[in-house]
Amino acid sequence: MDLQDENLKPTDNMDFFLLVEDKRIPADRDMLVKSSSYFRAMFSSGMRENCQNFVELHGLSSPSVRALVNLLQTSQLSLKDTDIEDFIATANFLQVQKAIDYVKSHLDAHTCVDVLNIAEIYCIGDLEEAAYSFLVDNYFDVFRKGQYERLREEQQTQVRERRKSIKSYICAIVEYDEASADTPRKTRHLYYHDDKDDVFRPYKTVDCRVPKSSYGAAVLDNNLYIVGGYVDTGGSTDQPVSSGFRFDPMTRQWHEIKPLQQARAAFTLAATDTHLYAIGGKAEVDLFTVERYDPKDDTWTYVAPLPRPVTPEAATACMGDVYVAESAARFMSPGRLLKYCTGQGEWTDLGKIPYRLQCDSDMVSFADFVVLIGSHAIKSYNITSGEWYTMMRPMGGGYTKNRFDHVVYDGDIFFVGRVTTQRCTPSRGVWDCLAGVPGCGYRKAFVLKLKRLLPFPDEVYGGYEAGIRKATNT
After folding, report:
1. pTM above 0.85, yes or no
2. Which domains, from first to last, does the chain contain?
């Protein structure tokens, strides 16, 4: 019985057909010669098929051959409705690079693991490379859809090593005042530090339009999360929001995440290896609640609260646990260092902080040290020995959060400011001065791996802005 694909459009050469599993599949002979090295060699070698109006193919399945012919003649194919392994095997056997290229350009989180395994079986190097590149660029989506765990151990290692090899950059979201006589407004822009030329370079100028401050920002699995904060409601006071967003630098896209259980601002968002923790902050009152975000399930859940409300932005994660500096400026008792053990879900009081913290203090971590950056001193606490150390002050003084944001990169601590960025190398006890980041007002610094240093498309921040507007209006 002759079976023909309804999507195939007849041409002058459609009297030719392929015979596969006793089924006739009409095809354009010239198209086959042009697209397939297999047929090109066959029809130029003087074989008997050169004089026939058909070619019989053995060892191939008719559905895959039909799908291949359909792709060549219409440039259309539904991989979801196709046996992907059989299709790739057929394309590889018939040496149709266009089909391989089509699969490469239509990878998704559901097919990439299968395609990788098939490419390895048939030694299709360019397809294997495309699958690995997709896994690296779309790691979060693949992980979240449960496909990452399907990779073999050596494949997971390959993905991790490729991700590690991508260069990291110090980045900053900075605020600009762009007021006019008619419309006072603020905008935010994203910059990255070009360490080769020591300059902060902008991505395409992006206007968020909606004023927003005191939000939490943290990086988890190379995704930037921006959560909560204040938005301008047009009234006498700003409104705290619960909205959250995730920026994936590999795909250069913003995604809205589930909102916090409770709107909050002026809080700390700390990232361990697996979760985010929104700690304390302000709403109508000072908050002592703590929420944990699971990126795999996209859920916020309450965990053990702080012993009492804490609003200063002074917390960090170190070696899997969360550390919070309770500011003496807000309580009659001395400032204390608190630890949240993520494994046990309990808070522990680690004792007094050896100097008076201010409400603009900050906290970072490296190795097994947490570093407290205050108005009058910089102290580091070794979480293994429980001992405090005094660090050398940066040049010029005035290094708290009202002038700098602080981030750790490659073992060094960077004080990212408008006029200057100062770098501390703790292992050598030295400071040096780098370029400052443009802008004024509220800024957030963080480290991201950037694979493509291209201008951000309008929709990158457009999606962020739209999400903010939606959250504000609900």
Report:
1. no
2. 17-164 (3.30.710.10), 166-473 (2.120.10.80)
